[in-house]
């Protein structure tokens, strides 16, 4: 049988080309049927190969002198994938020039490139990072996920179990490896609902005899290395913490022994006497003897070597890669998934399917209509310049704003919200009577109480359902959207109106040019429909994933200097612009990356970004930080200024109405407001 060759990223890792080449040469001694594609600086590779003629005869060199930095953001590295040694090694697997890729470079970048280039296998929602670790027994233990995903639902955990068992059968030779879920206890009632659901699903599947594994409940972290379990399954957050704790303990023991054996002449003599035992201990504790983590669940084999691995460690990672190719890892996983059966993954052994409870990769509620409303009066920059020390040129240069809409005496937050809601209902083709929930995001309610949402409810004539306000300022719409989605998932209602509406002109100090030029009034709304449970995955309509954050220590950077319980006045907006700008760019970029990670979506897959329309400079800086093309960013700030909680739904509606955003598009919503509060939501329309 002709074996595919192995692509080696010769430039990755802390030790450079020499160690990567030496490691590949060592591995080939036991796997001499393999050929190699060595990717990197050809001159340095040729120099390193002079000492390894056998490897040179079995290798082709693909020249590339560009390297992914160890601290380089994955989003930036992806943009350079076609010019870096790491990206070219992974691409060789995609094109069939190699069967597998090995890299000791940046883990996040390697994961992102691999997911984008190779995609997940059919039947796998998210890939997982798996590694082997020493035990007290003659075999190693396979553990996954170790950080590819920060969280996992029951369906994901079952898929991890299948993949981990296939991996264990190859590296340890077990026919039916013993699989356990990492938990805080072994009792059935312990752990999260996701863990208990996964246990029920695996128990049912094992009872049917369809899996090539033995599921044996839960295991605690202190039992991982005892050898009683062959495969330990967990989410990436818990798995990475457990891995770091185990590695830290190993280093602690090693350093402690080194200090003890070198502390005196008697200790040194004791070391020589106990040399056979310490050599065995060293073998178990040396990470080079267990090097090589595998990204499971992709349409190809990618192995991550530790960046600090020596030649022996690299050799182990390459040898693992060779064994996975020899034993056709991806084909084994595909076969085992087919034996699992679709019905098993639809059931969780408990009350409700996991996909009905959670977001992330599985879809939530879907947007079926959008609408917006703006006050009649338009105030241009030139008009503002007549009353405050500013100019059209100054405002455009610093903010991108050319005009804003200002509410008249007969226009309030409630009237604007009602108009936007009616437009959204018309767009969705549904009657107001079908609405069982209204969540209104606003920082400028008509009254301190009752909630402005109840006024909208009365105006629409759909009383009897749920109606309340959410106050998270400019992030308010995303908070309201997540709240409504959660309530729809519980069955509290089948259809909701989510509205962002503001009359910020009522709380502006019209003599403060640092704030009064920035804001406008308006409203935007969406009709949200509960998930059916029939369609899931990032290609089906719905909310794919949301992340929300807050940091109250920054409350004095953007606030209103009044309120019922402090000054008994409404107050005015106050802002420290430069500090807000810096926080906005960092926080928004980070939260977008979080949502991409939890949904398993690459930034290149996004069709449109609809950001909070705060300031054109913030929009540009955030897009650049993430490597998003400006052509994919919906910008309306020039026409409406910053409408706070209304800005995201207002921009979304406008982009839908003018034909930019179409059905089926993948859209990222993001916003940051006073508090600070910030968040992002990925939606398939």
Molecular structure report:
By secondary structure, the chain is an alpha/beta fold. It has three domains: 118 residues, Isopropylmalate Dehydrogenase (3-Layer(aba) Sandwich); 203 residues, Isopropylmalate Dehydrogenase, CATH 3.40.718; 319 residues, Thiolase/Chalcone synthase (Peroxisomal Thiolase, Chain A, domain 1), CATH 3.40.47. It is 40% helix and 19% strand. It contains 24 helices and 24 strands. The strands form five sheets. The protein has an eleven-stranded mixed β-sheet with strand order 3-2-1-4-11-10-5-6-9-7-8, sandwiched between helices. Strand 10 and strand 11 form a beta hairpin. The longest helix has 26 residues. It is elongated and about 90 Å long. The protein starts with 5 loop residues before the first strand and ends with a strand. About 2% of the residues have low confidence.
| Strand numbers in spatial order across the main sheet | 3-2-1-4-11-10-5-6-9-7-8
**Total individual domains:** 3
Q: Could you tell me the mean pLDDT?
A: 87
| CATH class call of the largest domain | Alpha Beta
Q: Helix segment count?
A: 24
User: From the alpha-carbon coordinates, what is the Rg to the nearest angstrom?
Assistant: 29 Å
Name the poorly predicted regions. 346-362
Helix content: 25-40%
């Amino acid at each position: 049988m002709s074996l595919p060759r192995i692509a080696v990223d010769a430039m990755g890792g802390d030790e450079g080309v020499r160690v990567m080449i030496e490691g590949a040469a060592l591995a080939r001694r036991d796997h001499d049927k393999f050929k190699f594609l060595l990717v990197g600086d050809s001159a340095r590779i040729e120099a390193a190969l002079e000492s390894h003629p056998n490897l040179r005869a079995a290798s082709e060199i693909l020249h590339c002198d560009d390297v992914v930095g160890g601290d380089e953001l994955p989003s930036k590295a992806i943009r350079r994938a076609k010019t870096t040694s790491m990206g070219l090694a992974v691409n060789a697997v995609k094109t069939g020039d190699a069967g597998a890729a090995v890299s000791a470079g940046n883990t996040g970048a390697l994961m992102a490139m691999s997911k984008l280039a190779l995609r997940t296998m059919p039947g796998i929602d998210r890939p997982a990072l798996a590694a082997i670790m020493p035990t007290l027994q003659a075999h190693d233990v396979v553990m996954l996920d170790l950080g590819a995903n920060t969280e996992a639902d029951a369906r994901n955990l079952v898929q991890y179990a299948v993949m981990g068992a296939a991996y264990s059968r190859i590296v340890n030779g077990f026919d039916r490896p013993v699989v356990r879920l990492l938990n805080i206890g072994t009792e059935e009632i312990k752990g999260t609902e996701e863990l208990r659901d996964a246990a029920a699903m695996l128990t049912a599947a094992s009872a049917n005899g369809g899996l090539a594994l033995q599921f044996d409940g839960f295991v605690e972290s202190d039992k991982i290395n005892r050898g009683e379990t062959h495969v330990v399954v967990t989410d990436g957050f818990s798995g990475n913490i457990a891995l770091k704790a185990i590695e830290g303990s190993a280093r602690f023991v090693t350093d402690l022994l080194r200090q003890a054996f070198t502390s005196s002449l008697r200790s040194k003599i004791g070391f020589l006497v106990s040399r056979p035992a310490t050599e065995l201990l060293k073998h178990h504790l040396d990470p080079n003897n267990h090097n090589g983590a595998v990204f499971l669940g992709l349409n190809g084999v990618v192995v991550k070597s530790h960046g600090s691995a020596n030649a022996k460690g690299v050799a182990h990672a390459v040898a693992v890669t060779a064994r996975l190719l020899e034993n056709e890892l991806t084909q084994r996983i595909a076969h085992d998934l087919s034996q699992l059966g679709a019905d098993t993954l639809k059931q969780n052994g408990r009350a409700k399917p996991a996909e009905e409870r959670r977001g992330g990769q599985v879809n939530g509620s879907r947007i079926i209509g959008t609408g917006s409303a703006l006050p009649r009066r338009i105030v241009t920059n030139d008009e503002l310049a007549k009353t405050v020390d500013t100019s059209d040129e100054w405002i455009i240069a610093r903010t991108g704003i050319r005009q804003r809409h200002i509410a008249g005496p007969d226009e309030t937050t409630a009237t604007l919200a009602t108009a936007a809601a009616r437009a959204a209902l018309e767009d969705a083709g549904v009657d107001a009577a079908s609405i069982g929930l209204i969540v209104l995001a606003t920082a400028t309610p008509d009254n301190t109480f009752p909630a402005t949402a109840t006024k909208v409810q009365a105006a629409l004539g759909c009383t009897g359902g749920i109606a309340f306000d959410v106050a998270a300022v400019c992030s308010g719409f995303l908070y309201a959207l997540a709240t409504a989605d959660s309530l729809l998932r519980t069955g509290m209602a089948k259809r909701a109106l989510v509205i962002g509406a503001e009359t910020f002109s009522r709380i502006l100090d019209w003599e403060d040019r640092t704030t009064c030029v920035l804001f406008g009034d308006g409203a935007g709304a969406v009709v949200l429909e509960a998930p059916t449970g029939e369609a899931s995955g990032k290609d089906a309509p719905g909310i794919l994933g949301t992340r929300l954050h807050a940091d109250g220590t920054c409350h004095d950077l953007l606030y209103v200097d009044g309120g019922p319980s402090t000054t008994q006045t409404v107050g005015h907006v106050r802002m420290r612009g430069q500090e807000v700008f810096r926080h906005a760019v960092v926080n928004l970029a980070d939260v977008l990356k979080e949502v991409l990670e939890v949904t398993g979506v690459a930034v290149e897959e996004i069709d449109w970004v609809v950001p909070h329309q705060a300031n054109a400079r913030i929009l540009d800086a955030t897009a650049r930080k993430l490597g998003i093309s400006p052509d994919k960013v919906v910008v309306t700030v020039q026409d409406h200024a910053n409408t706070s909680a209304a800005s995201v739904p207002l921009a979304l509606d406008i982009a839908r109405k003018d034909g930019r955003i179409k059905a089926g598009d993948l859209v990222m919503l993001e916003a940051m407001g006073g508090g600070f509060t910030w968040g992002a939501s990925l939606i398939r329309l």
